[in-house]
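Why this split exists: single-chain examples teach little about how molecules sit against one another. For that reason, every record in the complexes split bundles all components of an assembly together and asks for one structure covering all of them. Below is a record exactly as it appears in the raw files.
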Amino acid sequence: MAGKPAIAIASLDEKKRKYLPTKSQKSEKMTLTHTLNVLDEIESLVSDQLQVVSFKWLSRNFSLSSNTAKRLLKDFVEKHGKGLEVVYIVSGCLKNGPSNYSAKLASSTELPEVEKEFNGKYSVHIYSVQASVPMDPAAIWNAEFVQAEDLSRQPSATDNCLRGNRFCGISNSFVKRNIEGTTGNVTAPRTESVRTNAAPAQKGTVLSNQGKRFQHSNANVSHQAKNENNTAPAQNQSAKSSSDNERSLLVPPNKKNGLGEKSVSGTGGLLKNMWGRVPVKTEDESAKVEVKIHINDHSEVQKPSHDADNKGGSEDENQDVNFKRAPKHENRKRKVILDFSDEEYEDADVISLASPSSPKVNSRPDGKFNSEDSCPEKPDAGVSQEITFDEPEIREEDREKTAVDASTTLPMEKIQAIGSEAEVNPSKRRIIEAPSSPKRKKMLKSRIDDRGREVTEVVWEVTDTKVKKEEDTETSKKLNDGKNANGVNRAVAQKKSPAIGNAAATNAGGKAGSKKGGNIKDPKQGNIMSFFKKV
Amino acid sequence: MLELRLVQGSLLKKVLEAVKDLVNDANFDCSSTGFSLQAMDSSHVALVSLLLRSEGFEHYRCDRNISMGMNLGNMSKMLKCAGNDDIITIKADDGSDTVTFMFESPTQDKIADFEMKLMDIDSEHLGIPDAEYHSIVRMPSGEFSRICKDLSSIGDTVVISVTKEGVKFSTAGDIGTANIVLRQNTTVDKPEDAIVIEMNEPVSLSFALRYMNSFTKATPLSEIVTISLSSELPVVVEYKVAEMGYIRYYLAPKIEEEEDTKP
């Protein structure tokens, strides 16, 4: 897919709009059939495999520019849209925050309302097409995420649209791609470490810990970078990236932003979120009264982190979770997340009042970036300007706060660091995502449960890729071990099957999954048909 | 024309609860001998076989053999609308694509009719040969259910071994291992509390606990469960349905090479 001629794409655009015999007959035919194929494919993906087809996914999958992809989706919705759900992305300036450029996702029913929130000119595009709007909003980006992961997992020598970044609207003639050298180096060790660490049983926890660690280090790095050069995000980026990952240079930050962040949200379990906040309530009631601005919310959350570094890490994640989710799923979702904290804070009035409002304020800048990343390939000078503008602002605020409340200094810096990281250098998140990706299984599962049978299958595919690609070696090792030990040790054999089967059972949910699950997961499971014959 | 009147309607409700977790859609076969169902779960690992003999019904009319494809989830929804004491009548006309469940309250002052659409289901009917089993364990169904539930919190595979000492249920998981041994015990006050082990040959087989747990959904049907084991054969977990029939679950064992080397 990566190798489609750029000319064909360009001409496709025109055809799409006018169907006029502009270029040579031949090329038109080609592009027309191409379009039809794509539309057919979208239809089968959406209605048969129940995949969420977003323009981003489409663009990468068929090597189209994102604008073309959007147009294709629009065509698709016009032609085959009946019975399908469409999620729109509305971007522009909000009425209640005109200085910020923000983007929101809205289902077709919510669209009018969301549009009202915007001020003046705004754009409405189709973000994705799906059979039904998933219960778990994370499902919307899942396909993209898996795809991005696959693309970035390709051998470093392979040129693909993510590495090539050829549809990015922002180009820099001074930056040259060097696929063979740097990227390969960076990615290889990462994945390896994941594999070694991901012991069969503790996979989840180990990975999340790892994720945390990465995050920490990243945070520190970025923080330093910031200190050195506060106003130049570009500098930050380069500093960070050089320290950690060259890929950030190769990849447009906005392109990967959403994915990376989301992956982190995967690492932060919901329970963790809740536990993370529990100590806050008891400790911080007094502190909250002192400082009431949104930063305070951070400090509340962060305070416990003084006690334990790990906790801090998880808190960071929590923050990220909020940021991440908020922009993608509109206010409604944001509230849901906050509700946890609200409930916990019930006792203290100040807190309950402060906490809901503050994240909103906070998340707005992030939201902006996120939203921007949801239409990443759109070159929008205004947006990018805003980005650079906003960042220092936040930081300065943070600084002030730090000055006010010494006890909050540390965590705040962390937030600052992470926030900016998310904004400027999402590519790093991308790395974090690699180790944490097995965790994502969980999210997938829940999603499955919410929906029907076939969705379970889709989920299965995801898990399979995980298993196959990421833990390839592991599983094979396991199996080998199993064979060796099998003769003597039943316990060993059983232990192994849970490792495989756990994921299976949970994923399968029930009978639906069991067909595939049972067979795939448990090669040892016999089939009843081999005992009884058909009548 | 089909008309089956079951005074103890709760039996049918329980039967449905016992089957619907394992099988989504199934054909109910009615013949002059009784009302039966045979279905495999979607992964073809387990099979459930239900028989309600015609004698068990207060009124049983089945003019000709008929097979009715039903979605068990939907059927269960409808049967849930019946009270536990209600008399349930199943009615279907020849050539009709619906089945009617009629619920009569014991006092006859309330009569409810529920009509459900039938569906076409390709069912693969398997012939189940009568086999001599190496070991047969009869035990309180509640105890069996409890064991399966407990073990499934530890591992996902249960090894059931019958020796002359008794029957052992064991599992192993990431957090550790578990072994539960039951000895033969026939000297109890109530016959349904007895644990009877008939062993012709020691046998040891592993099974997926997930399925075992869905089998135990039939526990309310009977105080006693009978587990018949033979190496090389699926285990049979049988619950009697009052005096009128049974529900039997067949589960293919997990194949382990070690079985051969076992003493």
